[in-house]
Amino acid sequence: MNEQRVASTVRHYLNLGTRHLDGETAARLQKARADALSHYAERKPVLGIAWAGHSAGTVGHGGHAGSRLWVPFLLLVALLFAVGYWQYTEQNADPSDIDAALLADDLPVNAYLDHRFDAWLKRSEH
Questions:
Q1: DSSP structure string for 50-105
Q2: pTM strictly above 0.70
């Protein structure tokens, strides 16, 4: 059951109980209801995270709720920068490493530059 349904059911049963009251008591109850409603201020929903337990609160309303949100966020940003840096350094390998790998290979460098050799490699793979 949602809150509106529960409130409607409670209001219905409370109204059923007031049928048998005399006029003075009903008027006092009506005045008390009006006073209660005048003090009621509908709360607007607050955007944020509600923490369970002793540190209940929402983000931006004092306490340590803000730091609990910022620390993981900053760690995530640092991790993303680290991964980006690692990928950048891997993709931009030192040309001398590539040259050393080519020179240490069994094939001569001219074989990689020969287009007929490339065609022969493609035919031999099938």
A1: PPPGGG---TTSSTTHHHHHHHHHHHHHHHHHHHHHHHHHHHS--HHHHHHHHHHS
A2: no
